[in-house]
Amino acid sequence: MSDDQKLRVSKIHNGTVIDHIAGGQALNVLAILGIDGADGEPISIVMNTPSDRLGTKDIIKVEGRELSEAEVDVLSLIAPAATINIIRDYDVVEKHRVNRPEEVVGVLECPNQHCITTENEPIDSQFEVLEDGVRCAYCDTIIREDLAAHILAG
Amino acid sequence: MRHEHIISAKQLSRADIEEVLDHAAEIAADPAAYADRHAGKLLGLLFFEPSTRTKMSFSAAIKRLGGDVVDMGPVEYSSVKKGESLADTVRVVEGYADALVMRHPSEGSAQMATEFVDVPLLNGGDGAGQHPTQTLLDLYTIRENAGLDDLSIGIMGDLKYGRTVHSLAHALTNFDTHQHFISPESLQLPRSVRYDLHEEGATIREHTELEEILPSLDVLYVTRIQEERFPDENEYREVAGEYQIDAATLEAASDDLTVMHPLPRVDEIAHDVDATEHATFFEQAHNGVPVRMALLDLLLEGTR
């Protein structure tokens, strides 16, 4: 790695590093996790950096916050190769890959404009995760393509 | 009945279906025996969309079981008009009734409503989603006329938006049936229904012309191509008028062919079919009462 790249991905003290995100998906990952920087936590984002495995990859570092496995498993929908590193006192204390969850709640918006979840009702969107897509638990609509386009706005 | 609510045909096993159909046959054979069975019980009617058959046959069913209805009435006179959420409406109305029947234009509405009520809730149609109680009376009619196993059935018309089709196709996977789907390409089965039929191991045979398959059918289930389900009037006009049958069309069919329709029909079945031996759609509509009596009796059993 060149000095220039080292500068871009400097170490964090405590928090989470999400690595091996498919190139260009970092902002979608942050949207899914509901991280927008409004809480003042330092966030570093590197996009489209060369990767042997992925061609290009994105990296996100969130200072001061340890993301749980349940929180990050939803990322498997748009970043299946992502790896999660939990950092304490500059050391990696946990490293794991994302697992495909059985369902995702409150993350995606149903594209069916006649689905009850798109109305002003006190429920969260809910999708069953299929092998090759997701399926609305309310109206059965299946989404297979471009899941990132269906991420609920903050 | 192991189910608390009836939301989708997908939840119904062969045993569930046979339990309802057998009980409906018992009731049809001796309706007087059930006249006081649910005396004092109230069925709440929440119809957010127009209905004749579903609403009236549910009303008749609960009254023939000795109970009565409480009716929200048309949406324009209800609190929904003031912006009340569906979740709030069902939470309020469950306090007035022992069971609820709901029809709503949004898909998934009945599923959502079950999260807010404890009384049994029956889905009377959720948008282009499901209509499971129609399916039970359809299956009852098929069983009476053609039998449910070793059956070749053609389902024709609006397969994309037709909720009766979606429910029926799911339910038929419990039986030894060959399902043929006849529609214009723009109205073929939606992805979600295909997915489920595939998961159940059913083979989907799709046709754009009735003629090629008509002689081999035991049942032809015709549906209306519904203008209100089309986002665009031009798309509707392009396909309207196709997929109509009349007595002459049926000359190519088997003498035993049963012709069904969930009704209302517009012009997809000509009136000259009514006088043929094939016409079964009025009998089908009448079967709504014993089948819904059976369903209500099974669901209300625990509350007696």
From TrEMBL, chain A:
CC cofactor: Zn(2+)
Parts forming coiled coils: none
Pfam family, one: PyrI
One MF term in the entry's GO annotations: transferase activity
Keyword Zinc attributed: yes
Cofactor note: Binds 1 zinc ion per subunit.
Complex formation: Contains catalytic and regulatory chains.
Functional note: Involved in allosteric regulation of aspartate carbamoyltransferase.
Stated family: Belongs to the PyrI family.
Name by which UniProt lists this protein: Aspartate carbamoyltransferase regulatory chain
Species assigned in the record: Halapricum hydrolyticum
Automatic annotation (TrEMBL), chain B:
Keyword Protein biosynthesis attributed: no
Highest taxon in the source lineage: Archaea
Keyword Transferase in record: yes
Pathways involved: Pyrimidine metabolism; UMP biosynthesis via de novo pathway; (S)-dihydroorotate from bicarbonate: step 2/3
Keywords: Pyrimidine biosynthesis, Transferase
GO molecular function terms noted in the UniProt entry: amino acid binding; aspartate carbamoyltransferase activity
Binding site for L-aspartate: K82, R163, R224
Biological process (GO), any one: 'de novo' UMP biosynthetic process
Binding-site list for carbamoyl phosphate: R53, T54, R103, H131, Q134, L263, P264
Subunit structure comment from the entry: Heterooligomer of catalytic and regulatory chains.
Chain's role: Catalyzes the condensation of carbamoyl phosphate and aspartate to form carbamoyl aspartate and inorganic phosphate, the committed step in the de novo pyrimidine nucleotide biosynthesis pathway.
Protein name per Swiss-Prot or TrEMBL: Aspartate carbamoyltransferase
Organism: Halapricum hydrolyticum
